[in-house]
Amino acid sequence: MGRHEIFQVIQSHMRNIIRGTTGKEILEQNSMRDFGADSLQIVEVVSRSMKQLRIKIPRGKLKDAQNLADLVNLFEQAVQFAQQPA
Amino acid sequence: MPTGRLAHLVIEADSGQPLPALLAALTPAEQRWVRALPTRARQRQSALARQAAHIALQRLCRAGVPKELSVLPGPRGEPQLRGENWNGSAAVSLSHSGRLAAALAWRARPGEPHAAGVDVERIRSSEVASNPLAFSRAERALLRQAGDAGAFAGLAAWTAKEAAWKAIRSERQVGLDALVLTKLDLVRGHARVHWRRRPRRALEESTFSVTIRVVQGPDGVYLLSVAEAGAHRDSKIRIVVHDKATRPLPFRVGGEYASA
Questions:
Q1: Is any Cβ of chain B less than 8 angstroms from the Cβ of A16?
Q2: A28 inside 8 A of chain B by CB
């Protein structure tokens, strides 16, 4: 799964959970707060996205994500790690 | 005779006034920053929170607030007070959710970068109590003690941790895993959150006492948490609430839960 697909997963959950995304373009340089998301909505988007992508990222690492691009980077690394042969 | 420093908590509701009206109460620097935000929703929330912050600061400092004192984000997104000839004698914490914004202002002390934080969240259906991203295994076990009140307990616990996180984030990049909920009292509206990392010497203790309240806002019911750091009486803050936007609601919705 590539970066674009990962971002689409996050965007999809953002549109379901964050009302402020309606009719708006979501770009990687945005943060979820840009669309009026509160902290609870951010946690829900991230956890549902991780569940769909079947990845786990330590809570301590997520604090480094300042915007969606950073989040996608973390997810991409986790997806690549998960796809490595055992 | 009450002891402790005064802090002023102001709660403002978005009554749908035009954005220019919200911006009119802000400094030019704040207006520029708010206008640069990418969405109207974010602009309104940020403007409303700053409006509340100005009222809280005026209540706190009376005549001592510079006219052009701006509340602008610091390097970690924390609200910082900036202005010409500002002496750094006060600090603020902001929160917004839905159509409600809250601002807490208190007297800052040298060498004490954090003393308090505020968080407000609109109550809605949520599974946060069982979310491993939000809570550790021990915290989830604590919240399970709440039984049928688990969903509400999860939201209350979340606001408590968020309020404590806001109190310390100015110091360093702090993640969700640095704060641990150790007690939640849904009878009295109180929680205890422990900061797991070694605190700076300026902070007396690494435990936050959190006051939790339920209020009726313009578009629903909200949970409001205020976290205070420090154990000694003279380091604690006394909160004076200025609130025209909400009305308090009875809090007793569960019991008292603690970590084993």
A1: no
A2: no
